[in-house]
Amino acid sequence: MQATTLIAWPARVGMLPAAAALIIAAVPARADETVGVTLTDKGMQYMRMDLSTEQVKAGNVTFNVSNTSQTLVHEFVVVRADKPIEMLPYNEHEKEVEESALEVVNEIEDLEPGKSGTLTVKLEPGSYILLCNRAGHFKLGMVNHMTVTK
Ligand SMILES: [Cu+2]
Asked: Ligand 1 centroid to 142 CA: how many Å?
């Protein structure tokens, strides 16, 4: 047991720098991140947005968005915002968040019932709010937040 260790040790040390260089070359600076998004409702009674993770690393982030609704069209909007969800500017008349007053990164519009959509965006570190901005849906709870780290 001891003899084996003594023979193997120098050989492994000799290989280390080459192996390490290979690994550094093969791994990209940032791995892309994927977030699963599930949009759920019981008509206009109850809504929610669930995320597979609420924290990702900066870089390319792909959202795989599923609209599980039987009847309603939803959308998926990515907003960069440091403020809490309750503090987003809201238009009571339109029953919508004021997107024009926000830093909207990108969105998937008109996701039909039972359909899925994909959105890839490049995200800087910071706080983000993800929401559906169809009339009334935000206030019914189709919203969530996500943190992007360095
Ligand atoms: Cu919606």
From this structure: 6
pLDDT < 50: residue spans in the chain: 1-13
- Is 96 in a helix, a strand, or coil? strand
Residues 110, 128: Cα–Cα separation, whole Å = 21
Residues 6+ apart with CB under 8 A from 108: 63, 65, 75, 76, 117, 118, 119
Q: How far is the CA of 75 from the centre of ligand 1 (A)?
A: 6
Average pLDDT, the chain: 88
**Which domains are delineated in the chain?**
33-149 (2.60.40.420)
Q: Is 81 helix (H, G, I), strand (E, B) or coil?
A: coil
- Residues 33-60: tens digit of each pLDDT: 999 999 999 999 999 999 999 999 999 9
Dist. CA 134 → ligand 1 center (Å): 5
